[in-house]
Amino acid sequence: MPACPYCGSSELEVQKSWRFRFYNVTRYRCRRCGGIFNHYANTSGKGKPEFYIRVRRR
Fold first, then answer.
1. Cβ(2)–Cβ(35) under 8 Å?
2. Is residue 10 scored above 70 in pLDDT?
3. Beta pairing, strands 12-20 & 36-42
4. Are 8 and 1 in contact (CB under 8 A)?
5. What is the pLDDT of residue 54?
C-alpha cells in the first residue's frame, strides 16, 4: 500500500478505483491529514512503473 505524499502516513482510505490507459488508478484519502491523491500503478510495462498525483489537501 502506498504512503501519503503529504504527511507520509500509511493510514489511507480507498475512495475509488479505475483504469486509465495502461495504469490502474486508485484514489486515496489520508485519515491523518485529509489529503487526497491518486496512485497510478503500471500494469503493462510501458511508461513509469508507478507515480502519485496530488489532488487536494483538506
1. no
2. yes
3. unpaired
4. no
5. 78
